[in-house]
Design goal:
Structural class of chain B: alpha/beta
Oligomer: heterodimer
Structural class of chain A: alpha/beta
Helix content of chain B: 25-40%
Number of helices of chain A: 6
Number of strands of chain A: 7
Number of helices of chain B: 6
Distance between the termini of chain B: 22 Å
Strand content of chain A: 25-35%
Shape of chain A: elongated
Largest sheet of chain A: 4 strands, mixed
Distance between the termini of chain A: 32 Å
Order of helices and strands of chain A: EHHHEEEHHEHEE
Radius of gyration of chain B: 27 Å
Largest sheet of chain B: 4 strands, mixed
Shape of chain B: elongated
Radius of gyration of chain A: 24 Å
Strand order of the largest sheet of chain B: 1-2-4-3
Chain lengths: 227, 200
């Protein structure tokens, strides 16, 4: 069960031009916001924290703006909903000069501090205290964290021949059939259960494998529905 | 993923009752854990392991927590009011992480790296227009399977057929107990289901 979402980060797409000399630099830095939000969301139990006062599934949205400040400051905090969970909107101002340093890792550490500042103020305003830090064994393991400084792993792009092989199978499908596809290289515990699912759906009439290229293969089954 | 590289080491300079000491050990352990998970950021910001001297202040009031970094950024002193260890106690983790991050930021600013770290930006969104079906099959996780069914050319209308198939698949999965439907997507002529096989 993934931990409920309790934090989101938003920002200006186009900050005032007099604050940002290098818009490319700004955009690169702003890529960090969601990465950092994920990290904070995972290490604090924000849902438990917000439940002291707000309905279930309420969340904090931190809206980041650039300003001619020397340090991060909280500008405003308000709540908002239309029935259901509350959005607790905290707008913070961060120094535009943070974007003048070319080091994104330094910017990241500073932004983490700014996010904590916002959470602390939300806690004060609504008498929640600060969000509790999770013990390592309470790590929900989601969201999955990715390194913002490295090229992300791209999913295998199927070769044109693999794509057309799959399309051909899909096109020849009748209403009495399902086409099933799954990875070939998987642990046995999963393949046993997978076979159970396929048997539950119907009778396998055809089995095939399709190579996606780069050593990746998928297995396909043509299943006649058991109805 | 989580490198166990010790990015921070703690030195406690205080005589504390055993309960308080244990609490502090739990908290520094948790912070070590989270900073290790964030080692991509932390090690990119500061090249060197950070030594943090922890002091505990008696009768100082909850707001007395503070952090000092020496001029060359090689050592850090964090002072925590003992009240933080005495109350029901969830605040100390937040405060200590906050101060540790402040110290890391100060160190990173004082000792900039020769080659600054930069966020990876994908140069171009993928341009090659692969068949969407094949592309989504290629993205399947090992514990996932995709089902594809036809909706057109059926006696009843597509929407009814869609729900009928969805119900059927959901029911068979429920009975087999082997997985759940993660996502269902219906189009005009076909529909797909992503099945997540139960782990363990």
């Amino acid at each position: 069960m993934p931990a409920p979402m309790w934090l989101s980060i938003s920002s200006q797409v186009n900050p005032p031009g007099d604050l940002v000399e290098d818009s490319e630099r700004y955009e690169r830095g702003a890529e960090l916001y969601n990465h950092l939000g994920d990290r904070i969301e995972r290490c604090f139990d924000g849902s438990v924290w917000l439940m002291k006062r707000f309905p279930p599934r309420s969340y904090v949205r931190i809206d980041i703006r650039l300003a001619a400040e020397d340090a991060a400051v909280v500008e405003s905090i308000r709540t908002k909903n239309f029935g259901g969970p509350k959005e607790i909107l905290c707008r913070i101002l961060i120094p535009a000069t943070w974007f003048q340093s070319s080091d994104d890792a330094l910017l990241a550490v500073r932004l983490l501090g700014a996010i904590l500042l916002a959470l602390r103020h939300v806690g004060v305003k609504y008498d929640l205290g600060v969000p509790p830090l999770r013990a390592p064994k309470k790590d929900p393991r989601s969201p999955v964290l990715t390194n913002p400084f490295l090229q992300p792993e791209m999913p295998a792009v199927p070769s044109p021949s693999a794509a057309s092989a799959i399309e051909k199978k899909a096109d020849s499908l009748t209403a009495e059939h399902l086409l099933v596809a799954a990875r070939r290289k998987i642990p046995r515990t999963i393949s046993t259960k997978r076979d159970r699912v396929i048997r539950a759906l119907g009778v396998v009439e055809e089995e095939d494998k399709v190579s996606l290229g780069q050593g990746e293969e998928v297995q396909t089954w043509l299943v006649r529905l058991s109805r | 993923m989580a490198s166990q590289a010790l990015t921070v080491n703690w030195e406690l300079r205080a005589q504390l009752p055993r309960l308080h000491l244990r609490k502090l050990q739990h908290v520094t352990g948790a912070i070590d854990y989270w900073l290790a998970l964030w080692s991509d950021l932390v090690t990119a910001a500061t090249e060197h392991a950070v030594h943090i001297l922890l002091e505990v202040l008696p009768d100082a009031g909850l707001d007395a927590a503070s952090v000092d970094v020496d001029a060359d950024g090689s050592s850090v002193r964090i002072a925590l009011p003992i009240e933080l260890l005495e109350d029901d106690g969830s605040a100390v983790g937040f405060v200590l992480l906050d101060l540790a991050l402040a110290a890391l930021g100060t160190i990173a600013a004082r000792r900039p790296r020769d080659v600054p770290t930069q966020v990876w930006i994908n140069p171009e969104p993928p341009t090659s227009e692969t068949e969407p079906l094949a592309a989504s099959i290629a993205m399947l996780e090992p514990n996932e399977m995709m089902l594809l069914g036809r909706l057109d050319g059926t006696p009843s209308d597509e929407l009814a057929r869609f729900h009928e198939l969805d119900d059927f698949i959901g029911e068979q999965l429920h009975q087999s107990g082997a997985g759940i439907i993660g996502d269902t997507e219906g189009g005009c002529s076909s529909a797909t289901w992503i099945i997540e096989i139960n782990g363990r």
